[in-house]
């Protein structure tokens, strides 16, 4: 074990070299080279990590900075701590000590409870700060060892964010949440214009928020005003995480700033609004955000949906299609005319499937037109029209207009009413391929939904090519998933009433740094694909029996969503719990 010194001193490369030799990770020649290369501007942990050595112990573990930090912590009997910004209460931790004091000792508070303060350090032999912090905070101090790069990065980020919030509050003094108790008062405050969306501190908070969301792979950013404070939440892999809580006055300023960037009416706070922002990441990548505001009891709620253009260059296998499903889908969309529907709840990936399909179909000799509400992603290869109900431009009139624009393929954002459905049918009958979405639980129910809207059965028979029902399910992290034996009862509950052999083994989530200890990393699609054959078409009648239609589809090879999920479980991609969470129960 490395002996702790009697007085403060910095960790050295000699400390590292001696410990690594003693534990058998490196030999003496490596250690000599390491000590001779000491640089004052590099932390010893980073100096070793940059060499990209592999341990001489069995397994040949790469000696990266995370592994070295854990190793050093175990030698010094200090807990290793991975700083996850999603789990840090920035307001609480920045109140423990000043930025100057933290930077002086290169320490960072990471947790604050009623009894103790957890403080991360990369200098285990410097302890003179402990007594001072213990006295000022009146709490027990627990030291943990953390990656020095993380400490440097988050020390700057957290305190910079806290400083911007304080400056914003100071700049807008008098506009706080303390006097706001109801919706009428909040609307009145919003109209006073005392909050400056161009304030430098507000602009910094918004920039940090967007950059942070991109880094965390968030698909949506929620800014939600509450009575005492506003919540900022990110949706990552389909799950919402509370990221930060900000004062209500600052929330109003942030919302105004984002509305300004999205060219929305900043003064209007009583009606829902939509907008969009296109921004460029530091690496030059373009990202689009779709904005939506909604008045609530405590102010405007803002949701930003993040669209990554890279999702459109994926092939169908990357979206989760099996080889068979990919071929069947390609067969459907290769029809010269007819209607193809994609069904599923909001957030199930329908837009990604449609846009990916359209982008592959958008050859130079093909005219692809869309009518959407709102336009999800701007794609240069498409001619895209935005529905505007306030001037009478709805889906039906939009389709009517597109049919005069010599289209080959038409994409309708959603079939919501009979008029839209009739126009889609007319477009299909006149030689166009129409793709659209519908909200139903499974593929066969889409036919019943069209009949409910009032579309004649004979027109559905002659125009409907097929229906794709889909869901998104979280995938297991490939870096840490663990093999386990399936529970027979759980497996049969998943596949009932169908028969599917229980796999020999499946995988379960574990948790690592790559997946932020959740055990899941990314999402994939589950698909139920119904092709309307001649025999199925005969069952589409004005009094269509949906269960009978569903049974006939199963006999023709329709694989329900639950079985598609079971196949992903057996392949080790996800878990039974995840599939049960997103798929509808079997229809008895």
Q: How would you characterize the overall build of this protein?
A:
- This protein has 588 residues and is of the alpha/beta class.
- The protein has four domains: 13-77, no CATH class; 85-156, GMP Synthetase, Chain A, domain 3 (2-Layer Sandwich); 175-307, 2-Layer Sandwich (Beta-Lactamase); 311-472 and 524-559, Rossmann fold.
- It is built from 23 helices and 19 strands.
- Strands 13-12-14-15-11-16-19 form a seven-stranded mixed sheet, sandwiched between helices.
- Helix 10 (200-215) packs across helix 11 (248-261).
- The longest helix has 24 residues, at 148-171.
- The radius of gyration is 29 Å and the shape is globular.
- It starts with 12 loop residues before the first helix and ends in a 6-residue tail after the last helix.
- Mean pLDDT is 88; it is low at 174-195.
Describe the secondary structure blueprint for this structure.
Blueprint: H1 13-22, H2 28-36, H3 44-49, H4 65-75, E1 79-80, H5 90-94, H6 99-105, E2 107-112, E3 116-121, H7 129-137, E4 140-145, H8 148-171, H9 183-192, H10 200-215, E5 220-225, E6 229-236, E7 239-247, H11 248-261, E8 273-280, E9 286-296, E10 299-307, H12 316-319, H13 323-333, E11 338-343, H14 350-361, E12 368-372, E13 383-386, H15 395-402, E14 409-412, H16 418-429, E15 433-438, H17 445-453, H18 457-463, E16 464-476, E17 482-484, H19 488-495, E18 506-508, E19 520-531, H20 534-538, H21 546-555, H22 561-570, H23 576-582
Parallel strand pairs: 1-4, 3-4, 11-15, 11-16, 12-13, 12-14, 14-15
Antiparallel strand pairs: 2-3, 5-6, 5-10, 6-7, 8-9, 9-10, 16-19, 17-18
């Amino acid at each position: 074990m490395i002996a702790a010194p009697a007085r403060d001193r910095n960790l050295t490369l000699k400390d590292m070299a001696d410990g690594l030799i003693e534990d058998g990770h490196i030999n003496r020649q490596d250690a000599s080279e390491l000590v001779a290369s000491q640089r004052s501007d590099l932390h010893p942990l980073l100096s070793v990590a940059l060499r990209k050595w592999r341990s001489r112990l069995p397994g040949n573990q790469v000696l990266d900075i995370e592994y070295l930090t854990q190793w050093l912590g175990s030698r010094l009997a200090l807990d290793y701590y991975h700083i996850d910004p999603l789990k840090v209460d920035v307001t609480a931790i920045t109140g423990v000590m000043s930025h100057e004091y933290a930077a002086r000792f290169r320490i960072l508070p990471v947790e604050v409870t009623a009894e103790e303060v957890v403080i991360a350090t990369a200098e285990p032999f410097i302890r003179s700060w402990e007594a001072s912090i213990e006295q000022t905070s009146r709490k027990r101090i627990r030291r943990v060892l953390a990656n020095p790069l993380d400490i440097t990065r988050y020390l700057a980020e957290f305190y910079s964010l806290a400083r911007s919030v304080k400056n914003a509050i100071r700049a807008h003094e008098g506009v706080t949440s303390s006097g706001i108790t109801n919706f009428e008062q909040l609307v009145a405050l919003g109209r006073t214009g005392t909050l400056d969306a161009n304030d430098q501190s507000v602009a910094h908070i918004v920039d940090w928020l967007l950059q942070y969301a991109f880094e965390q792979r968030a698909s949506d950013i929620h800014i939600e005003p509450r009575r005492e404070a506003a919540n900022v939440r990110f949706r990552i892999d389909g799950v919402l995480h509370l990221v930060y809580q900000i004062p209500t006055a600052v929330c109003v300023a942030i919302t105004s700033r984002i509305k300004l960037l999205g060219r929305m009416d900043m003064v209007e706070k009583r009606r829902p609004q939509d907008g969009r922002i296109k921004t460029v990441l530091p690496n030059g990548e373009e990202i689009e955000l779709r904005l939506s505001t909604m008045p609530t009891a405590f102010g405007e709620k803002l949701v930003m949906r993040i669209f990554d253009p890279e999702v459109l260059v994926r092939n169908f296998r990357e979206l989760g299609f099996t080889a068979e499903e990919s071929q069947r889908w390609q067969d459907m969309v290769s029809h010269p005319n007819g209607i193809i529907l994609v069904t599923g709840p909001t957030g199930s990936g329908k837009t990604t499937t449609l846009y990916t399909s359209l982008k592959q179909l958008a050859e130079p000799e093909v005219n692809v037109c869309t009518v959407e509400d709102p336009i999800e992603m701007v794609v240069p290869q498409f001619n895209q029209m935005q529905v505007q109900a306030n001037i009478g431009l709805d889906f039906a009139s939009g389709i009517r207009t597109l049919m005069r624009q010599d289209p080959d393929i038409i994409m309708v954002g959603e079939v919501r009413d009979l008029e839209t459905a009739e126009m889609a049918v007319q477009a299909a009958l006149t030689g166009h391929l129409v793709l659209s979405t519908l909200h139903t639980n499974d593929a066969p129910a889409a036919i019943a939904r069209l009949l409910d809207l009032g579309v004649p059965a004979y027109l559905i028979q002659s125009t409907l090519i097929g229906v794709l029902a889909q869901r998104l399910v979280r995938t297991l992290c490939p870096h840490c998933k663990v093999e386990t034996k399936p529970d027979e009862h759980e497996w049969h509950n998943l596949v009932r009433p169908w028969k599917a052999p229980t796999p020999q083994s499946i995988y379960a989530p574990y948790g690592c740094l790559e997946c932020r200890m959740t055990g899941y990393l990314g999402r994939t699609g589950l698909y139920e694909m119904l092709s309307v054959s001649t025999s199925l078409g005969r069952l589409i009648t004005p009094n269509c029996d949906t269960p009978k239609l569903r049974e006939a589809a199963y006999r023709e090879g329709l694989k329900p969503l639950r079985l598609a999920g079971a196949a992903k479980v057996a392949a080790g991609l996800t878990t039974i719990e995840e599939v049960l969470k997103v798929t509808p129960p079997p229809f008895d």
